[in-house]
Amino acid sequence: MLSKAKIKLIRSLENKKDRRATGLFLAEGGKIIEDMAPYLNCRLLAATEEWLALHPDIKAGETVAASSGEIERASLMQSPQDVVAVFEMPRHEYSPEKLKGKLVIALDGVQDPGNLGTIVRTADWFGIDTVLCSAGCADIYNPKSIQASMGAAARVAVLYGDLQKMIIETGKPVFGTFLDGENIYETELANDAVIVMGNEGKGISTKTEAVVTRRITLPSFKGEGQGCVESLNVAAATAAICAEFRRRDYLRQ
């Protein structure tokens, strides 16, 4: 049985203040929980008896067999699944030394939790294990970010702080994305670099622009006069840019 106290705890993790106070975050859905469980400490696992019987290898500090109705009352999703889990936040520390030889993503004011989670999922796919975030970015432990990351938040270190300082301390070339930048397909790229992506509406801030060493852009492939959107969604743009960086790296091998 999932008690009222535990339901209250689970639902409280929708709030950043409560997540930070407890050091806990919520994940929902079997696929995400299965993906995160090998990497993080699971404090509480609540699922139907049927789900638990099919997943005996997932360990938690406390496992509760719950009814579908109890899980629905605890869930933050519009269409609850048959399992929820409370995980302990991992402790990541910024270390420029550990980033040597690596491609890194830096996010300047990305505010939509879904975009942030999707970018972290993209980073995981392209073998990027660190995402640097300005203080104004969404919280990676927001339930919407966790859902969008599809488990990648367990493997990718998402670090918050003075973004410009962190970028400078990497000592890497810094590729910033701008609408008026150089065509990425005509630009020399590096696999030991920082890729900076900006806010959904405002792009890269003036302060962060000052540490960018190369301005790049993804060109539109529509001809003049055909009409086109002004820009790509930041998560979609990040995926396309990472793909081109990795393609160049592949060709150099």
From TrEMBL:
Keyword hit for Transferase: yes
GO biological process, one term: RNA processing
Keyword annotations of the record: Methyltransferase, Transferase
CDD domains found in the cross-reference section: SpoU-like_RNA-MTase
Positions of the MRM3-like substrate binding domain: 5-85
Top-rank taxon, per record: Bacteria
One function term, GO molecular function aspect: RNA methyltransferase activity
Domain tRNA/rRNA methyltransferase SpoU type: 103-242
Family, as annotated: Belongs to the class IV-like SAM-binding methyltransferase superfamily. RNA methyltransferase TrmH family.
Protein name per Swiss-Prot or TrEMBL: RNA methyltransferase
UniProt organism field: Candidatus Caccoplasma merdipullorum
